[in-house]
User: Fold Major facilitator superfamily (MFS) profile domain-containing protein from Dendroctonus ponderosae.
Amino acid sequence: MPDTEVKGIDDMLAYVGDFSRYQLILICLFSVINVLSAFHYFGQTFTSLVPEYLCNTTEYNQRNVIALECSIKLWENDTVYVEERCTTGWTYNNSNTHGYTSLTQELNWVCSDDWKPVLGQSVFFLGSVIGGIVLGVLADNVGRLHVLVIANMLAFCGNAATTLSSNATTFALSRFLAGCATDTNFVMMYIIVMEYLRPSMITFGLNICIGVFYSISCMSVPWVAVWVGNWKTLLIIVSGAHLIVLLFYLIVPESAQWLISKGRTEEAIVCFQRIARINGRTIKPKAIESLRQYSLENINCKHQQENFFGLLKTPNLRRKTIILIYKSMVLTLCYDAISKNINSTGMSPFIVFTISSATILPACLFILAVQDKVGRKALASGSLVVSGFLSVCAGIYLAFVENPEPGGLLVLAIIARLGINIAYNSGHQYAVELLPTVVRGQAVAVVHVVGFGATFFSTQILYLAEFWRPSPEIILGLLMISGAVACLFLPETLNQVLPVTLQDGEAFGEHEKTWQFALCGGGNSESTTILHRNANDH
Assistant:
């Protein structure tokens, strides 16, 4: 390409540098977001942690009383006793929690008050659903960068407010506020970094950050909690750390693709000029003029008013959107259920959480080694079908073994967690690449919000074990296999020109076959041709 010929955003990005100093800065900042997101999301797990406890019996004759969790047995003689409700408080066994004091323990939210921390968790989830929708729509109207900062400030306010909670009402309200930030505080930076990286380096850059920084952060959360000793100090640290995102305004650019899709070409040019300056390059006036011409020819003003519902108006886009939503539901539901199953192994929650979080790094390294060779479609479908098969096998094992060893259950759970981590993390990038730029913010939000909504059923699925022990593993396995089949109907995005407008999205992968993979020469080249032709017709 001549050094002044710019036929699109990708050409301009290559011109100013698509994997140089500026991209490394963005990757470092994305690593910061990974750390903040991990502590924000999983900090609540240890805030509401319930240690082992028994009714306090110090006011009674120890020889005549037996302490239970929510009551005491008072022996009147050797054969007769009365059971009374616990009214003297509780004693907590912190050996399994390594001396850490949770909000549940401090406020004695156990027994008749055990619904209070559960309410906070539920309201946090409600906040993530509402916040995801509102902030997603906002991202396509005011920009990715503004919403990234807003979401992290919501996380700051929500976690800070939680430290002031002394009753169920204030706790629920503060957790709702914190929940509003969830996922958006991560996804917006994910989108920005992805759009400014060389396509061949996207998988490497994003998965290294997630695999190293998110994994290490998740593994660190329980031990930071142990180090600080109590839930208030933990949340003060978590909330205060989010203030660093305010500095992102000085460094992080707005999405150039979004700016151009909104007709704000001059602002996009400013972003590219900043990147060029930091990367030690100079943009010639002719290249800038080429970008202006591209914007005029290819971006119609009507795209400024497009929204998520535009994805449902044409058959190809509608099919892909519905599949992405279903896949998100399967991934999020299975991820949540498998995580909860790990926590029910009877071992220390701190140790189990650390071990399960350690699977994130090998999952991301596997994605890094494989995804750009086999393609998004093959990895998404393959990882789900393998995870589903292993889960069904675990269910069959439980059906024929009456009392399986806890260690064996933990191994099965860890393997299942590894598989779902691969599917979840690879699926995230796949969805972002498939959705057109003009509605990407709100579309990604809707896909993730519906996925979060599906987690409502994870507890019910796990409860089915009360009736037949293997049922959760078998149901989750079949769900993952169904998700794998659904992925076969999505087009490959590896080495393709990604859609910007809804017209691009409708044409993308229109003629690709179900069993066509990048691994076997798939990834329909016709899709790229159609995108360029449609762009010239606008």
